[in-house]
Amino acid sequence: xxxxxxxxxxxxxxxxxxxxxxxxxxxxxxxxxxxxxxxxxxxxxxxxxxxxxxxxxxxxxxxxxxxxxxxxxxxxxxxxxxxxxxxxxxxxxxxxxxxxxxxxxxxxxxxxxxxxxxxxxxxxxxxxxxxxxxxxxxxxxxxxxxxxxxxxxxxxxxxxxxxxxxxxxxxxxxxxxxxxxxxxxxxxxxxxxxxxxxxxxxxxxxxxxxxxxxxxxxxxxxxxxxxxxxxxxxxxxxxxxxxxxxxxxxxxxxxxxxxxxxxxxxxxxxxxxxxxxxxxxxxxxxxxxxxxx
Length: 293
Fold this sequence. Notes:
By secondary structure, the chain is of the alpha/beta class. The protein is built from eight helices and 17 strands. It has a seven-stranded mixed β-sheet. Strands 2-3-1-12 form a four-stranded mixed β-sheet. The chain has a two-stranded antiparallel sheet with strand order 4-5. The chain is globular. It starts with a strand and ends with a strand.
């Protein structure tokens, strides 16, 4: 209510202003009453079906669901030689097939971002390859937001034929406390096509979020509740899972890494989501029954 969060879409800011939110420039302030309404709005479980008719459910009272093996790899390490190469279509297919063959993975997430030029936009090519090489449910990462609607429109046309939901969309805010226009575009496409959302806050503690884990946790929770409130204001009852990706940042080596505090923050997020009755999307192994990792 006091600090607000930056929202990069003028269209969404105007909508929020008309529905009772305070807006100053790009900063949107969230009345506690709106946040409470949003917490109670989404379903407490999410169902995704594979193309063999098997359903995976994550949320309250369900067994944990495992998703892999992505999501944002730009390079691939050849297992035979350890050579690091740019992520190409052959690597992408290998990873999809690997995830498909591993029974522990119930959902296949986008395993990397293609780094080669193609006549077909890479995001659309990746989606087609995932459909072709696995029958498991899909968690999509769309790197270029302008293709999100096209991809989900194609999927919606398929969905009308098979009458099952087998895709969810993975999106992130940007720490600290910003929901960029690109993320809003992806969210709007998911809402328009009735695609469940996985909304996960990522930061590097000591760089883009406070270095103390308890402070980073509070900031991430504010980002998640702000995103949830916007989603439920735009479309009440839309299915969404919330989670955190808290990494540390080594200023000397200039690399991010996970440590025990990442695990602790994820466990804290899990407990909050269980209390609120919202499906949890966890990392670092922090998943109880009903969670997703």
